[in-house]
Amino acid sequence: MSQSTLRRLLSTARYEVLPTAGIVERIEEYVAPGREITVTASTGLTLEATLSTAEQLQALGFRAVPHLAARMIHGRPELTEIVDRLAEAAVDRIFVPAGDATPPAGGYVGAHDLLVDLSSMAAPFQHIGVSAYPESHPIIPDDVTIQAMWDKRDYATHLVSNLCFDPALIASWVPRVRARGVELPLVLGIAGKVELAKLARVATKIGVGESTRFLRKNTATFTRMAKPGGYNPRKFLDKVGSVLDDPEMGVAGLHIYTFNQIKDTEVWRRKQLAALGGAEEVSTAW
User: Fold this and answer.
1) pLDDT of amino acid 211
2) Which candidate, 261, 92, 225, 240, places its Cα nearest to that of 168?
3) For 83-235, where are the E strands, in sequence order?
């Protein structure tokens, strides 16, 4: 991978956080305003936690991206309230996953349903991300996720890939996405500089039921952390360098899953940039 590609991706990387107590203060302490911060939505932490965290981050000068998990939203009236609330907070970007709420709150079965409703509103969102799955979803068949990506492409501005630890899989998956005719820019999801003990502590903060789901969903993370040498995000990026360098693959940025390890992630990112030399580039939007 070229140094210019790596510098661009690290400079513009966005962080994903869970809306736990104290996360806003930690972000403010360690991350410079202007960076894009996405805020997850989960039944254990509530959608209110997602929205209020996003509002606080936006007010502090970050570019907040709340996750509007479709299955957690009761229907169009609630969605309208959310849109109005985010407009008031000057939030102009969102991420729309289906979410894990089972059963759904009642309004939307999946992300596509919500996106269709959203498209008929005077919503202020300039940037709308949707999920892409390099690996099989734990409960949704591959043919369904592939079709969903195709169905959502007209309502979104970019794709955000789910966490994957297999660089060979990423290297083959991205060309397949493009071969299917999905041309949306891709923000590649990678794990940040994560420590196993800290990851376990995050799980304990989000409720018993939710933490069980969290641990199950992130089994690969725990497994990789426990192996000798652990997981190194820089080595991962180097191994997918050919895809990142190829403009036809349309990898527009990095989405770093921090698991709320903000300090460790930001120190790692700055260290990598310092080794490359030169100033950080201006962040771009997808």
Assistant:
1) 43
2) 240
3) 93-96, 127-132, 158-161, 186-191
The model's pLDDT over 125-153, given as tens digits with 9 standing for 90+, comes to: 999 999 998 987 666 777 777 888 999 99
**DSSP conformational letter for 43:** T
Look at the chain and count its residues.
286
- Amino acid letter, 126: Q
- Rounded to the nearest angstrom, the gap between the alpha carbon of residue 175 and the centroid of all alpha carbons in its chain is 21
What SS3 state is found at 246?
coil
Nearest C-alpha neighbor of 54 from the set 44, 45, 65: 65
Specify which residues 15 forms β-bridges with.
37, 256
Task: Name the band, by pLDDT with cuts 50, 70 and 90, for residue 207.
Answer: very low
Residue in 137, 163, 158 with CA at minimum distance from that of residue 220: 163
Backbone angles phi, psi at 108, to 5 degrees: -135, 130
Whether 62 and 72 have beta carbons less than 8 Å apart is answered as no
Distance CA 136, CA 145 (A): 8
The C-alpha atoms of residue 14 and residue 255 are separated, in whole angstroms, by: 5
pLDDT digits (tens, 9 = 90+) for 16-63: 999 999 999 999 999 999 999 999 998 888 999 999 999 999 999 999
Closest-CA residue to 98 (of 165, 144, 157, 49):
144
Residue 146: Cβ within 10 Å count = 16
- What is the phi-psi region of residue 118: left when phi exceeds 0, alpha when psi lies from -120 to 50, beta otherwise? alpha
CA nearest neighbour of 128 among 152, 151, 105:
152
Query: Is the distance from CB of 149 to CB of 130 less than 8 angstroms?
Result: yes
Entry pTM: 0.89
Contact residues for 39 (Cβ-Cβ < 8 A; gap 6+): 16, 17, 18, 19, 50, 53, 54, 57, 64, 65, 66, 67
| CB contact at 8 A, 72 and 47 | yes
Q: What DSSP designation does 89 have?
A: T
